[in-house]
Amino acid sequence: MCGIIGYVGTRPALPILIEGLRRLEYRGYDSAGIALAQGGKVEVTKSAGRISVLEQRLDFALPQATGIGHTRWATHGAPTDLNAHPHLDASGKIAVIHNGIIENDRALRTYLERQGVQFKSETDTEVIAQLVGHFYAGDLEKAVRQALHEVSGTFGIAVVCADEPDVVVAARQGSPLIIGVGQHEHILASDAAAILAHTSQVVYMGDGQIARITRDDFRLTTLDAIPVAKEVEEIEWSLEEIELGGHEHFMHKEIFEQPDALANCLRGRIDVREGMVHLGGLVDCARELVRAKRIILTACGTAWHAALVGEYLFEELARIPTETEYASEFRYRNPIIDDGTIVMAVSQSGETADTIAALTEAKQRGALTLGVVNTVGSTLARGTDAGVFLHVGPEIGVASTKAFTGQVAVLSLIACYVGRRRHLSTAAAAQFISALAEIPAQIRSMLEQADDAKTVAERYAGLDNWLYLGRGYNYPVALEGALKLKEISYIHAEGLPAAEMKHGPIALITEGMPVVVIATSGSQYDKIMNNISEVRARGGSVIAIATEGDREIKKIAEHVIFVPDTVEPLQPLLTSVPLQLIAYHAAVIRGCNVDKPRNLAKSVTVE
Ligand code: AGP
């Protein structure tokens, strides 16, 4: 996902812009650039590759106090110097950086070319720059407004102009922008991580808004020039939360943060004695939620796996028909949304393009929409009728770990919240909530003996095909374990409902092939033990995730990693943790870039 940083103030802008871009690196990018405005000109420096390549081209002695910076994840046009942002207009006096996709860029490009404009790049962003230059007549804010009236698509942009060197103009439509409020300075960014070093006072821009930012003030208006009130908020996350904190990788840090992260997620939301769940974000829609006829969960990737656990939870605890849809499929399949349908989007970043589009589709068809989101102020968090934040803190590693367990925990809370207002007895709810309250401590105890996972990784990291099997609540965990391994160690892995193996995939099993089987205590234990025997009969090496105290499993599995006992619906919160660690250690052994895996971005904000 692209990153935006802007600065206008009293300090030299360049070091601030570079430091801000570095804090945005984790989002994934393939080129970067800077524009500085002062003394009647705009100086643009940009390059394909990492920020370190850009730095070699920069003169850090430049005193300019106004500037913008960008990290680009290529969508229109290859990652080249020419396609990197910022882009200039024909006069060379206006520079633009942009997150998002302009959908009518071809028509606008043709129009401008007929006006004599000669484009230098293949990007849709240059169309914005040329359009602003086309309208510019001494008022940058006005020219940006006029240009954006011609544009359709999504954008988060920042613009500087040689003739207005103390101004940054920003605009947002579908791609987040935050304004950090400092002392005689303002920092604009697409992500709080780039602002926290300077201030924790921020204003989240809304869709359809333009900001004209100077050193001592900024004004917010709509695209139609209607003033918008500024709501200054405090960023919840501290900078150290974003730093590595002594861990080798963000992913490792975030795996080990899960006890605290889940404790924060549950804090103030459960009453064990009363068997009650308190979710302030659902109060206004509790009645509709409790009377829902159908729930549709929609998400992508790991969030989709968490949603699949949610489907089992809602049907068991709330007794409401529930289905889980890939957001990218849901939005194009003419979904049936009728009275009593609730659509719930699950997302760590709150900026996943497909999930946002699916939610928009659901809203247009009249669904009550809820968000299960980690990032406050994100597009999904602001675009739903109601919702519940994960409160697990910023997740920097591309591979989602604490956000997955946070999503499952929140879905567990919501299912119990609704179930308790429907058919779930106080005693059953109290037992469930009591087990949920134990989870953080149980994960903490598991992490104290995390070497088992490393041993498994050391044994099998050299092999290129793994299978993951699970049943019931642990079927989504098998899918998630396979995804974790694939996305950071580049080992091919497939997750399956264990019983499905005999309908084809069992043909894959060869001598010594690693097969991870989640075989915890529960209603399908005997069945999963049979599946393990089927794997062993064909020479597969079984890595079992089992419940502490199980004496049978050691007799039939090559490796056993034990997890504490808990009620079946909460097992994913425990069984997913060793699978995260197996993937992590396999990636480290294979020398992969754990936090920034190839081809991946932390948040996929393009379709
Ligand atoms: C998971 O490890 C991946 N990073 C990816 O599948 C991710 O879960 C997916 O892109 C959804 O992201 P979101 O939760 O921010 O919407």
> Which stretches are poorly predicted, pLDDT < 50 over at least 5 residues?
none
Rg is: 25 Å
| Total individual domains | 3
Give the overall pLDDT as a whole number: 93
What structural category characterises the helix and strand content? alpha/beta
- Write down the CATH class of the largest domain: Alpha Beta
Any ligands, ions or cofactors bound here, and which? 2-deoxy-2-amino glucitol-6-phosphate
C-alpha geometry? globular
Question: How many β-strand runs?
Answer: 26
Helix content: 25-40%
Supply the CATH superfamily name of the largest domain.
Aminohydrolase, N-terminal nucleophile (Ntn) domain
The largest beta-sheet arranges its strands as: 3-2-4-1-10-9-11-14
Explain this structure.
The protein folds into 3 domains: 2-235, Glutamine Phosphoribosylpyrophosphate, subunit 1, domain 1 (4-Layer Sandwich); 245-446, 3-Layer(aba) Sandwich (Rossmann fold); 449-594, Glucose-6-phosphate isomerase like protein, domain 1 (Rossmann fold, 3-Layer(aba) Sandwich). The protein contains 20 helices and 26 strands. The strands form 5 sheets. An 8-stranded antiparallel sheet has the order 3-2-4-1-10-9-11-14. It has a 6-stranded antiparallel sheet with strand order 5-6-7-8-12-13, with helices on one face. A 5-stranded parallel sheet has the order 18-17-19-20-21, with helices on both faces. α3 packs across α4, α4 (124-135) packs across α5 (140-150) and α16 packs across α20. The protein is globular and about 80 Å long. The mean pLDDT is 93. 2-deoxy-2-amino glucitol-6-phosphate binds at residues 300-303, 347-349, 352, 355, 398-400, 487, 603-604.
